[in-house]
Amino acid sequence: MRIAVVGATGMVGNVMLKSLEERNFPVTELIPVASERSVGKKVFFNRKEYTVVGLQTAVDMQPNIALFSAGGDTSLAWAPKFAEVGTIVIDNSSAWRMDASKKLIVPEINANTLTAADKIIANPNCSTIQMVVALAPLHKKYQIKRLVISTYQSITGTGVKAVQQLENEYNGEKGEMAYPYPIHKNAIPHCDVFEENGYTKEEMKLVRETQKILDDRTIGVTATAVRIPVVGGHSECINIEFEKEFEVGAIRKLLSESAGVTVQDNTDTNTYPMPIYAHGKDDVFVGRIRRDLSQRNTLNMWIVSDNLRKGAATNAIQIAEYLVKNKLVNIPS
User: Fold this and answer.
1) CA angle, 13 as apex, 323 and 188 as ends, to 5°?
2) 234 carries an active-site annotation
């Protein structure tokens, strides 16, 4: 199988290459792709050296699957060109997520909706992915009525420039700023740009994408997204109002039996999810599971996951794995 990784020299692209290796994805020919300024650079995959090529060269090579992580503008311009030559595109940007003709996929929840006709498949936002992995089994059993979300998001979600800003500030050095304010020893309640309604795009992604993935536009969702000086992953405090009554023990059991979820919830031993321990792992970690004492049928949870792994690269590769397993992609004989 010819696999293209578009954005191979970026943070998520690097994790995609690593995850493809770790998961033993059946790659017979890797096509690392990046912008013109990166063409000719070298990347390593399975102990071999590969030369980065441009987008048109990659299209001409007609890969079976293209994993995109190169920004929305690149995806809008080039994903259809790959699709025209028969390539299945799994796109990590926001370009196609809310397109009614494109499917927004988290494999544990809705991969079964995919067909051979789906040539451009959207990968959800990182903060949405980790949340819905935990919410989907609960919604199925108890029917979610409303979500109140507060996120505490890693600087890696912004990219290399943000990581460099934090390192510069930590070391007392001046440099390029990814954020309008210092991030070291700070919390910035501003992820992505503000929309006219006063919410940021990141906050509205949590609203729109959650409803689309869970296939329920009646769920009320409100969110506040905050950037914090953490590298390992995103954390989320979720307040969930259900239509039906529940027992906390049953919630804990249901989550522990759900694919992709690891429950870490023992107050006697101070066991709860933290980004420092989620870093480099693919699971969604859930803890601090407790009833909201102020309101009927309402639950509080704390959810943590590595935003570059399950929140981006791993989810995309899991989609590709589903396509291969279910013979929805043409595999050369």
Assistant:
1) 115
2) yes
